[in-house]
Design goal:
The protein has one domain. The two termini are 24 Å apart. Helix 1 runs antiparallel to helix 5 and helix 3 runs parallel beside helix 5. The chain is mostly helical and 176 residues long.
């Protein structure tokens, strides 16, 4: 691989990192309205004895936090993992295991992207509303956010694969 190809891969990785970093930092602000709505819901439900339907909005806010924060978590290696089997291995061997497991990741996330994409498309076509709520909120924008979140995880996972591959091909002193 020539230097220009390495630079292009590096530019791609930095771009995806920047997108997920910025998305995660922006989406984190949704915790404020989410928390305020939970407090308002508890207050109206238990103090005023008059529940209002904050739950519909809260579900969409929390789902947005989770879905759009996935790439950010992968970028910062914040996902929960079971390291008991690989914790004693060298960084190089752990990276090789990650590379071996990448097809499972790409297949799973690819299938999820495909299915959520179809669901979002259909939801836009039908102008879908959440029928289990008295407010009947629209949910097609939310389903699009789910697709975007899965795409961000897929892209960040691909960046991890590229970096892992480069780490194995061009090991440094820390790989032993």
């Amino acid at each position: 691989m020539q230097i220009t190809e390495h630079k292009k891969l590096g530019d791609f990785c930095r771009l995806i990192d920047a997108i997920n970093e910025r998305t995660g930092r922006i989406v984190a602000w949704l915790f404020i309205p989410f928390t305020l709505l939970v407090v308002a819901d508890v207050f109206t439900r238990y103090v005023l004895r008059n529940p209002w339907f904050y739950i519909d909005v809260n579900i969409q806010i929390m789902g947005t936090l989770i879905m759009l924060g996935g790439g950010y978590c992968l970028l910062h290696q914040s996902h929960i993992g079971v390291d008991t089997l690989v914790s004693r291995l060298s960084p190089r061997k752990r990276t090789i295991i990650d590379l071996i497991l990448f097809p499972i990741f790409i297949g799973s996330i690819g299938a999820l992207l495909w299915k959520t994409g179809i669901a979002a498309w259909d939801s836009w076509v039908w102008k879908e509303r959440y029928s289990f709520s008295a407010l009947l909120p629209i949910i097609y924008p939310y389903k699009t956010i789910i697709v975007l979140g899965v795409l961000l995880v897929l892209l960040q996972g691909t960046v991890k694969f590229i970096r892992d591959l480069m780490f194995v091909i061009h090991p440094g002193p820390e790989s032993k």
